[in-house]
Specification:
This protein is about 40% helix and about 25% strand. It has two domains: about 10-55; about 85-190, Nuclear Transport Factor 2, Chain: A, CATH 3.10.450.50. The chain is an alpha+beta fold.
Length: about 200
């Protein structure tokens, strides 16, 4: 609530408090309050919403990157995932960005996802140009996908991410680990052996 760049509510509360203060002062001393003083709370309120919507914080940039990745996965856009993945990407199964993209392209040759429903997406830590985040999601697979034939039409998954700020200021995916499937601990190697 205290970060005026992420939420407008602090400045909204200040503007509302100032509005009440001016109203109280005006009822006690009507000759001392000028008409322009009513504009001060309005300016503070406008500044609160302007800062919230006009300035994108690192936290918001990380969430935007992750939401775009989820959207690219749902529409099976391998090029979009490529653009949002850092050159130094690696995880416990894909040792490089190239291996990840090769795996994605082979999976996307046939329909995979029918729908990816985000249950929660949040940033856990953010410091020194590196963010860790987690995604809890329900994945509904396309009926013709290999995954649907092996594990069923839907599952609940938890995925963790490491996102890093690049020299150009853009936040890109550096690591992604599958942590849980249907509330059971799992990793990429176990999941990839399924299909």
């Amino acid at each position: 609530m205290w970060n005026v760049f992420e939420q407008p509510w602090l400045l909204t509360a200040i503007a509302f408090g100032l509005f009440l203060l001016i109203g109280t002062f005006r009822s006690a001393y009507p000759e001392k309050v000028k008409a322009w003083t009513w504009g001060v709370p309005a300016l503070i309120l406008a500044a609160g919403f302007g800062l919230d919507y006009g300035v994108q914080t690192d936290h918001e940039k990380v969430l935007t990157t992750l939401k775009q990745l989820v959207q690219c996965a749902q529409i099976q856009d391998a090029q979009g995932i490529d653009r949002l993945t850092a050159p130094d990407y690696s995880d416990s199964y894909h040792r490089s960005k190239t291996r990840l993209l090769t795996h994605i392209e082979s999976r996307f040759s046939r329909p995979v996802f029918e729908k990816i429903k985000v249950l929660s997406l949040y940033v856990e830590t953010l410091d020194n140009g590196t963010a860790t985040a987690a995604l809890n999601t329900t994945v509904i697979f396309h009926p013709e996908s290999t995954v649907a034939q092996v594990v069923g039409r839907s599952l609940i998954a938890r995925v963790t991410f490491i996102v890093s700020r690049q020299t150009n200021g853009q936040w890109l995916l550096r690591n992604m680990e599958l942590v849980e499937v249907n509330r059971q601990p799992v990793n990429w190697r176990q999941a990839s052996g399924q299909f």
